[in-house]
């Protein structure tokens, strides 16, 4: 059987378990009543710093948001950031939009629009994310704000990659890279090289992907950015895994794990453990894979990272599925689905629905399998996730071909 289950999810990559790190730029409906939380500048600086680590797949540009002088707007920003931390993205968007009121500096508008775009990206609302980033890009160009422009372009590239528009993605990352080089931002340069590597990986040009990740690694080592170094090693490991060089992949993920443990970056540690589990899956060492996924699951629970928890529940389910323990696999996929729905991660939700469909197909319950594949496809199409659409359509096609003639839908 050649149906495709989907392992975990990190922005932009479906079908392999990854914790690919994209460029994180240093310092990711109707109006409702908003509860304002008063806070001081130091609190906002702390939250923005935490956000720069927690948002994977999105560049963040903060400008002078932390020093915003107006008390009410500063409180709205604080409320928005707190909502983002709790995965309450609609609430965050409301607060950040209200913050965009009159008297906002152009550079602050760019920063707020990028944060709003990141909220849309986090809930897989790709067209709305793209619209927010494009608005930020326009203002940044008019204001000659190069840092804000590079962040907006980088994020547009990430959206285009998820939508499968790879040439557009590459063009955006190349423009962002050029800006980072012009302003001497070496960390940003490494980030965009990594993003370009991820696009080349999706294009299937693995040698170019490897070249760009190695260039990023060289820069991050030169500037002493250890978190970036671990991310680059992770991305290199993923490319080696795809190339089938599993020992090389394992070595790079273990190096990344060592660094993340040394610097105390627990989210990175969980991602590295996940990727090591992926390699063991590819090696057929299922018990070792399960052990690493469970360690990653434990860390994500401890740090309260719900998305990571859902991803690892999904990965544990995949191991049980391969082992033939279908009821256990189903249990873990359903737990992952529940969390993804709670936190509004629609791409993760679609992945889980697809995987549940695969279990039912393996169990011989073909009508149930088709129902879940169709739900997954509908969600993938709504968010414009090209790779997910391809996988779900392939599973539906294969299922219909395998169904006995009397059972085939008309």
In short:
The protein is an all-alpha fold. The protein contains 18 helices and no strands. Helix 5 packs antiparallel against helix 6 and helix 14 packs parallel to helix 16.
Q: How would you characterize the overall build of this protein?
A:
The structure is a single chain. Helix content is 74%, strand content 0%. It has 410 residues and is mostly helical. The protein has a domain at 31-183: Serine Threonine Protein Phosphatase 5, Tetratricopeptide repeat (Alpha Horseshoe). α2 runs antiparallel to α3, α4 (106-122) runs parallel beside α6 and α14 packs antiparallel against α15 (326-342). The radius of gyration is 21 Å and the shape is globular. The two termini are 23 Å apart.
The CATH topology of the domain at 31-183 comes to Serine Threonine Protein Phosphatase 5, Tetratricopeptide repeat
Mean pLDDT: 85
Q: What is the count of DSSP helices, taking H or I runs of 4+ residues? A: 18
Helix-strand category: mainly alpha
From N to C, what is the helix and strand string? HHHHHHHHHHHHHHHHHH
| Tally of DSSP β-strands | 0
Uncertain segments are: 8-39
Q: What's the CATH H-level superfamily name of the domain at 31-183?
A: Tetratricopeptide repeat domain
Radius of gyration (CA) equals: 21 Å
Helix content: over 70%
Percent in strands: under 5%
Q: Which architecture name of the domain at 31-183 does CATH use?
A: Alpha Horseshoe
Instruction: Give the overall form.
Output: globular
CATH class of the domain at 31-183: Mainly Alpha
Distance between the termini: 23 Å
**Largest β-sheet summary:** none
